[in-house]
Structures are given as structure tokens and as C-alpha cells.
Design a protein that fits this description.
546 residues; 48% helix; 7-stranded mixed beta sheet; alpha+beta; disordered C terminus; binds adenosine-5'-triphosphate; binds magnesium ion; 3-stranded antiparallel beta sheet
């Protein structure tokens, strides 16, 4: 009886436990952090990623790199989630969050090898992260959310490491203008949503040809050749109903017995369409933007009346148009009233590179704007768009929560010092864990120094001694390759970016450290094209019904 074995897992399942499981998880997570470490900071390198179809992405953005890497290991995936959360919540600091998470695990591994139990490490880390967040709040500097110069500095830091760093002045200025334009005051707070900023991209010009449009740019052409291509003082109707004769949902058969009946039939259709166009014209609109289709005949009538029309516009664009032009989206042409129309100084179809685009610009105090990103090639435009996204996000972050911290690793170094001082009040092994946490934060200045070709350890020692002598804003100046007062160099980052980075890095590290058992089901052998499992057939049936 004593030697009897019981199989509780399915055949082929793998299981690793205890030390072995923890080591494997840490190794996988560390590999992820290590892979993007060299991209941190203004002197960081970019990564080239090639997907299964041979499509190439060149990026410096942590979240993008990890997303494209398509990692498989479950612990490694946790790190990818860290980057993703960071990107969703605050838009910048994705590399920082992952690198810190990685280093927390690295330091934990060292403690673990010295026989400190994972739960002690987890508790210590937990305590340290609460304290670190507290210290961050203390180090934060209040700013004025409408101080354009400050916002511009922050935007510039966020794109310092990106491909378009050369034009950071220009892009930062644009990001600040765009965010402030869509920001609204609600009580004492500001609300700002970067979804109100439409970013459209087209390769085929210089990066400096990127423009901010006080309105919306649509990747659509005017529907009919007879329509005007340029309308000044535009009165815009937004319609989300088709300008077509509605087709019935069921099949019906009509017997037509003579040509007159046929004609009456067509005439009636024409009358309906003419009626719709007349209503639009009667309301005073000279622009019609339609979310649905526009019948050829209706197009013809609109052209006759000098109305410029665009069709099949995305719902999100319709919403932006409503915010930009002040018009109301109408669901039935019959309901259209003059007061529902929006206004723009100019609506014009222009050829951008090979495509025709419609610009609705010169709106009065628009609450949605657009940025048309240009650049030499597709890849440049893609990366420029990602960098612009970071810039827009950090400006929004500061507008919503107007506090900043000093960048370049200065804040991390200071929080580390404060944590070390705090650790002295703790006892035994907990103290070790808090110290390890402090050291892990120093990976940021260390990496910035390393990526700038400086001597990492020497620099870190120098940095520590500066912080000991209360020069709390000392960090890494990667351009000059030495340590400096980064507040003097105008390197500021939003507090919310650092808070989120520390929070999600700690959570991810703790989550991985708590695992002591990995049970993985065997991979199903049937790949695509192989025999289908019961799940597949159920899905197919479901699809058939809809
Ligand atoms: N001019 C500068 N001098 C010193 N440090 C800088 C400067 N500009 C940026 N940094 C630092 O570079 C780091 C940010 O680097 P980077 O933008 O590559 O990574 P991230 O923001 O963590 O992630 P990602 O931008 O990929 O989402 C921050 O620590 C920031 O303080
Ligand atoms: Mg960044």
C-alpha cells in the first residue's frame, strides 16, 4: 500500500515543483526583461522584429517589442502583461516597468539561493513597494497643468529615446497643442482623453511634414466626381443612416407586367432618394458625412446641389467629427434641422501621397483634433506614430494629475536610498528583502549608464554618494556620459508613469515568486488542419447560426 502510486493528471501533463519551478519561472521572466533592457533611455537601441509573415517592425517601445515577440512561456507572458498594462494605463514607461520587474526577480533569486523563503521575500517586497510609492509621492513636484513649457519638456523626454528624437521639439510642441485642445475643465480637475486625437499616418514625405489639424482628417475620398472638392464655410451634416432605398430583409417576388409599372417603380425609388437629398439641402448643409452607404442616384442629386459627400466613415470618426464641428449625429434624414449642422472653415479633398483624403479643418475650438503623421517609409511612420502616442499620453497624464518627478534614474536612485534607510528599522530577513528591492530600483540608472556606454558600477557608486549628500536630483545624463542634476537639464516625467511602473513591476514579481508548482497540460497534437476536437465543431455550429 505504501508504495502505491496515484496518477491524478492526464497523460502527458508536465509538472515542476518547488525550487525548480521557481527557478524556471524566474529565468523565463528575466530573459524577457533582459531582451528589452538595451532599449532603455535616450541612448537605448531599437529592436527589429520579423513576424511569421515576414513583416518587419522596428521599435524602441517596450510594449510593442514584447507584443511582437509573441512569447510562449507563462511566466514570460506575465512580463508582457506588465508592459501592456503600463501602456494602457499611462502610455509610457513600459520598458522601465519590465526592467524593474526583471531585476526584482533577479535579486529575489539571489536571496532565495541564500535560503530566504519566497514568502519572506514576497512580504518584504510588498512592504517595500508600499514605502516606495509613499516616497514617490513625497518626491513629486507640483506643476501647473496649463504650463505649456513644462508639458513640452515632459513630452520631449518621452520621445528622447525614439526614432524621431531628432525632431522632438517639433513633435512635443504638437502633442502639447493637441492635448490641450481636447482638454476640458470639470470642476477643479481637467479631463482629457487621447481618443479625441485622431492619428492618421501616410508615408511618402518628411517627418517634419507631420501636421496638426484643427478638425478631422478622413482617409476617404469625395464620393462623386461632380461634387465640389473644396468647400469653404462648411455646414456639415453627420448621418448614420444609409442614403439608399432600404432593401427588405426577406426575398420577395414582384410580377411586373408592363414597362409603365417598371418605370413607376424606378421613379418611386428616385423620388425617395431625391427627397432625402432635398431635406439635407433644405437644412442648409453643404457637406454630408455618412456612416453608411450613399446610392449612386443620391450622389448624383447631391452633386447637382453642390453638396460634398463622404460615405462609409467609421463610427469613431463620426464621433470625433461631432466633437470637432459641433454637429449632432442624425439617425434619420427627416430629423435633420439647421441647428444639427456643424461648422468648419474648410472641407477639402487632397491627395496625400497616393491616396485621396478629406480634411475637415478650421473648426471653432474643436474638442477633437487630428494629427497626420508623415515620414519617409512605412516603418518610419509606424514608429513615429508610436512615439507620438507616448508623447500624447505623458502630456495627458500630467494634465490629469499635475505632478512630475525627475527622470534619468534620479528618482529611482533617491527612492532606493530612502528605502535603504527605512530597511535599517526592520528586522532580519525582511530587511534583506527591502534592501534587495532598493537595489532592484537602481537598475534604471544603472541601465541608462550602461546604454550610454558609461562604466555602470562606477557610475552607480558615484550616484549613490551624491544622493547620500542629499543631491536628490542627480541622475544620468546619457548625452554627456556623466552624472548631473537632471532638473537643470529639464528631464521630468509624469508621477503617474513612475507610480504605475513600480506598482505593476512589484505585483508581477510577487506573483511569479508565489508560484511553487507549475502544472501544464500536454499540448494538443492536432495543429491547424488536423482532425478537429469537439470544441472546434461546437464553434463552427455556433458560427453557422449567426
Ligand atoms: N534627456 C534625458 N536625460 C536622461 N535621462 C533621460 C532623458 N530622456 C529620457 N531619459 C530617461 O530614459 C528613460 C525612459 O526610456 P524609454 O523611453 O526608452 O523607456 P520607457 O519610457 O521606460 O519605456 P517606453 O518608452 O518604451 O514605453 C527614463 O528613465 C527617462 O528618465
Ligand atoms: Mg518612454
Amino acid at each position: 500500500m505504501a508504495n502505491q502510486q496515484a496518477l491524478i493528471l492526464k497523460e502527458g501533463s508536465s509538472r515542476s515543483q518547488g525550487r525548480e519551478a521557481l527557478h524556471a519561472n524566474i529565468t523565463a521572466a528575466l530573459a524577457v526583461a533582459e531582451s528589452i533592457r538595451s532599449s532603455l533611455g535616450p541612448k537605448g537601441m531599437d529592436k527589429m522584429l520579423v513576424d511569421g509573415f515576414g513583416d518587419v517592425t522596428i521599435s524602441n517601445d517596450g510594449a510593442t517589442i514584447l507584443d511582437e515577440m509573441d512569447v510562449q512561456h507563462p511566466a514570460a507572458k506575465t512580463m508582457v502583461e506588465v508592459a501592456k498594462t503600463q501602456d494602457d494605463e499611462v502610455g509610457d514607461g513600459t520598458t522601465t516597468a519590465v526592467v524593474v520587474a526583471g531585476e526584482l526577480l533577479n535579486k529575489a533569486q539571489a536571496l532565495f539561493d541564500k535560503d530566504v523563503h519566497p514568502t519572506v521575500i514576497v512580504d518584504g517586497y510588498q512592504l517595500a513597494s508600499v514605502k516606495a510609492l509613499e516616497f514617490l509621492q513625497k518626491l513629486a513636484i507640483k506643476v501647473n497643468p496649463s504650463d505649456k513649457a513644462m508639458l513640452k519638456k515632459i513630452a520631449k523626454v518621452s520621445i528622447a529615446s525614439k526614432l524621431l528624437a531628432e525632431h522632438k521639439d517639433f513633435i512635443a510642441e504638437m502633442a502639447v497643442k493637441a492635448v490641450l485642445q481636447v482638454t476640458e475643465k470639470s470642476g477643479t480637475k481637467y479631463v482629457s482623453d487621447i481618443d479625441d486625437i485622431k492619428v492618421e499616418k501616410k508615408p511618402g514625405a518628411a517627418l517634419t511634414d507631420t501636421v496638426l489639424i484643427q478638425g478631422v482628417v478622413l482617409d476617404k475620398e469625395v464620393v462623386h466626381p461632380g461634387m465640389p472638392r473644396r468647400v469653404e464655410k462648411a455646414k456639415i451634416a453627420l448621418l448614420n443612416c444609409p442614403l439608399e432605398v432600404e432593401k427588405t430583409e426577406f426575398d420577395a417576388k414582384l410580377n411586373i407586367e408592363n414597362p409603365d409599372q417598371m418605370k413607376a417603380f424606378l421613379d418611386e425609388e428616385e423620388k425617395i432618394l431625391r427627397n432625402m437629398v432635398d431635406k439635407i439641402a433644405a437644412a442648409g448643409a453643404n457637406i454630408a458625412v455618412c456612416e453608411k452607404g450613399i446610392d449612386d442616384v443620391a450622389q448624383h442629386f447631391m452633386a447637382q446641389k453642390g453638396i460634398l459627400a463622404v460615405r462609409r466613415v467609421k463610427q469613431s470618426d463620426m464621433e470625433k467629427l461631432a466633437k470637432a464641428t459641433g454637429s449632432r449625429i442624425i439617425t434619420q434624414v427627416d430629423d435633420l434641422k439647421p441647428k444639427d449642422l456643424g461648422y468648419a472653415d474648410l472641407v477639402e479633398e487632397r491627395k496625400v501621397s497616393d491616396d485621396k483624403m478629406t480634411f475637415i479643418e478650421g473648426c471653432k475650438d474643436p474638442k477633437a483634433v487630428s494629427i497626420l503623421v508623415r515620414g519617409g517609409t512605412e516603418r518610419v511612420v509606424d514608429e513615429a506614430e508610436r512615439a507620438l502616442h507616448d508623447a500624447l499620453c505623458v502630456v495627458r497624464d500630467v494634465v490629469i494629475e499635475p505632478r512630475v518627478v525627475v527622470g534619468g534614474g534620479a528618482t529611482e536612485a533617491e527612492v532606493a536610498r530612502l528605502l535603504r534607510t527605512h530597511a535599517q528599522k526592520l528586522s532580519g530577513k525582511e530587511q534583506l528583502a527591502v534592501q534587495a528591492y532598493a537595489e532592484a530600483l537602481e537598475i534604471i540608472p544603472l541601465t541608462l549608464a550602461e546604454n550610454a556606454g558609461m562604466d555602470p558600477i562606477g557610475t552607480l557608486m558615484e550616484l549613490r554618494s551624491k544622493h547620500q549628500s542629499r543631491q536628490v536630483r542627480t541622475g544620468i545624463d546619457p548625452y554627456k556620459g556623466k552624472i548631473a542634476d537632471l532638473a537643470k537639464l529639464d528631464v521630468y516625467e509624469p508621477l503617474s508613469v513612475k507610480v504605475q511602473a513600480i506598482r505593476s513591476a512589484s505585483e508581477a514579481a510577487n506573483m511569479i515568486l508565489r508560484i511553487d508548482d507549475v502544472i501544464a497540460a500536454s499540448k494538443s497534437k492536432e495543429g491547424p488542419g488536423g482532425p478537429k476536437g469537439p470544441g472546434d465543431s461546437a464553434k463552427e455550429e455556433g458560427e453557422g447560426e449567426s
